[in-house]
């Protein structure tokens, strides 16, 4: 029988430490596909990451989340003939404390998005607030933290209360053509009950970020008790972290200084965001 601990309005089930260590060991045995990253992007990512003592895989995964959201609801991936996928990706990168996830989040998420006229980053949300955010921002939303544990704890709490947030995120991920939300409220002098109907014709909602392995694996186990496909939509990875010495960091800073923005001119073309 599954028992839940209540802590600060959250629920968590503890797995045996031996099981968690085995899961982490098996996950780390899978190598990251760096060969699929073309130069000079690969070299630049490694230099940027090592110059602040974080992992290049962290930067890549966070940047993928931000980029897919910026591409917007009008973009699709052509997987093969007659098979298209929306840009809505759900990722989680598992990493131990002190391995540079905060630096990666700042470099790949906060700093690039801070300079855009269209604010797409979402930290805390309600269902209504998320719909209103999407409605006012061209259908874009990036739910992302340097520590995503609270997001999954909140989702688990809603699950235990019979909420439908998981199904809502499933629909966002799958790129359903229309997302409709109806809420009830009082209006008028007689406080008549009226329905408010919110409709989103196109959306690009992305979930990304980082978490420590043990808390996430505990939450993943309990979240998996509901077989609605939500966890199947999340791409999770765990990266072998390398912590550098000061001398090594300086060497990577020198490599980074050899790059300029013109190095990447003409490689990609992107439409403007927010006008």
Adjacency order of strands in the biggest sheet? 6-7-10-5-11
Share of residues in helices: 25-40%
Hey, roughly how much beta strand do the residues contain?
A: 15-25%
Structural class: alpha/beta
Instruction: Find the count of extended strands (DSSP E, 2+ residues).
Output: 11
In a nutshell, what does this entry contain?
The protein is of the alpha/beta class and 275 residues long. The protein has helices spanning 17-28, 41-50, 56-71, 101-114, 127-136, 149-160, 165-174, 213-223, 246-256, and strands at residues 5-6, 11-12, 76-80, 83-86, 90-94, 121-122, 140-145, 179-187, 192-200, 204-211, 234-238.
Outline the structure in words.
The protein has 275 residues and is of the alpha/beta class. 39% of the residues lie in helices and 21% in strands. It has one domain: Rossmann fold, CATH 3.40.50. It has a five-stranded parallel sheet with strand order 6-7-10-5-11, with helices on both faces. A two-stranded antiparallel ribbon has the order 1-2. A two-stranded antiparallel ribbon has the order 3-4.
Relevant terms:
disordered N terminus, Rossmann fold, five-stranded parallel beta sheet, 275 residues, two-stranded antiparallel sheet, alpha/beta, 11 strands
Q: What is the strand and helix layout of this fold?
A:
Layout lengths: L4 E2 L4 E2 L4 H12 L12 H10 L5 H16 L4 E5 L2 E4 L3 E5 L6 H14 L6 E2 L4 H10 L3 E6 L3 H12 L4 H10 L4 E9 L4 E9 L3 E8 L1 H11 L10 E5 L7 H11 L19
Parallel strand pairs: 5-10, 5-11, 6-7, 7-10
Antiparallel strand pairs: 1-2, 3-4, 8-9
Helix pairs in contact: 2-3, 2-9, 3-4, 6-8
